[in-house]
Automatic annotation (TrEMBL):
<keyword id="KW-0723">Serine/threonine-protein kinase</keyword>
<protein>
    <recommendedName>
        <fullName>Alpha-protein kinase 2</fullName>
        <ecNumber>2.7.11.1</ecNumber>
    </recommendedName>
</protein>
<dbReference type="InterPro" id="IPR004166">
    <property type="entry name" value="a-kinase_dom"/>
</dbReference>
<dbReference type="GO" id="GO:0016323">
    <property type="term" value="C:basolateral plasma membrane"/>
</dbReference>
<keyword id="KW-1003">Cell membrane</keyword>
<keyword id="KW-0677">Repeat</keyword>
<keyword id="KW-0808">Transferase</keyword>
<feature type="compositionally biased region" description="Basic and acidic residues">
    <location>
        <begin position="187"/>
        <end position="199"/>
    </location>
</feature>
<dbReference type="Pfam" id="PF02816">
    <property type="entry name" value="Alpha_kinase"/>
</dbReference>
<keyword id="KW-0393">Immunoglobulin domain</keyword>
<comment type="similarity">
    <text>Belongs to the protein kinase superfamily. Alpha-type protein kinase family. ALPK subfamily.</text>
</comment>
<keyword id="KW-0418">Kinase</keyword>
<dbReference type="InterPro" id="IPR011009">
    <property type="entry name" value="Kinase-like_dom_sf"/>
</dbReference>
<feature type="domain" description="Alpha-type protein kinase">
    <location>
        <begin position="1"/>
        <end position="156"/>
    </location>
</feature>
<feature type="region of interest" description="Disordered">
    <location>
        <begin position="159"/>
        <end position="199"/>
    </location>
</feature>
<comment type="function">
    <text>Protein kinase that recognizes phosphorylation sites in which the surrounding peptides have an alpha-helical conformation. Regulates cardiac development and cardiomyocyte differentiation by negatively regulating Wnt/beta-catenin signaling.</text>
</comment>
<keyword id="KW-0472">Membrane</keyword>
Length: 199
């Protein structure tokens, strides 16, 4: 329960910074808000801890899901859906790909019960209530929209393709000669015989 509060309230802080950057932009308009969640201690109760938050009235919509896949096309076309996708992209970029706010859902621009995926377990104190693979899925599936462009966010498709290319090139490269001891004659060396933890 404590982690649930920490996740939602941390995501809320990111949303406030996002709003401060986005709202002044001409034509951006209203920004999604993650509502606060409060931890209540009730020592006399059989269940001593509970969470309390504002009741959201209206049509409850899932804009993104826990597995990092983006919203469906109907929701993606909505203003709230696009701005949620942009918020995810913004957080991803601000944290250098270390954190992704996911499971965005709520009524209109008011969101609740969000999730957070982190690249490394324990990043900023998160136990990671969403799998690390969700970040990879998001990076591969995200399609920038006009709000991403308004905020000047970099395309993840280009970044993702560059990272995949660099990884495949890296795995094909041999360790550089300074890391190999010259105890074996050059002709006898086979590239697959050398494994370096640095590469």
């Amino acid at each position: 329960v404590i982690q649930e509060c920490y996740v939602q309230n941390t995501a809320r802080e990111y949303a406030k910074i996002y709003a401060a950057e986005a709202e002044p932009l001409e034509g951006f308009g209203e920004v999604p808000e993650i509502i606060p969640i409060f931890l209540v201690h009730r020592p006399a109760n059989n269940i001593p801890y509970a969470t309390v938050e504002e009741e959201l009235v209206g049509e409850f919509v899932k804009y993104s899901v826990r597995d990092g896949k983006e919203v469906n096309f109907l929701r993606k076309d909505s203003e709230a859906g696009q701005k949620c996708c942009t918020f995810q992209h913004w957080v991803y970029e601000k944290t250098n790909g270390s954190l992704l706010v996911t499971d965005l859902q709520g009524v209109g621009m008011k969101l609740t019960d969000v999730g957070i995926a982190t690249l490394a377990k324990g990043y900023k104190g998160f136990k990671g209530n969403c799998s690390i693979s969700f970040i990879e899925q998001f990076r591969a599936l995200h399609q920038c929209n006009k709000y991403c462009e308004m905020l000047g966010l970099k395309s993840l498709r280009t970044t993702h393709q560059k990272q995949r290319k660099a990884t495949s090139m890296k795995s094909k490269n041999l360790p550089n000669s300074s890391t190999i001891k010259n105890t074996v004659p050059k002709k006898a060396r086979e590239p697959r015989d050398f494994i370096s933890s640095e590469h």
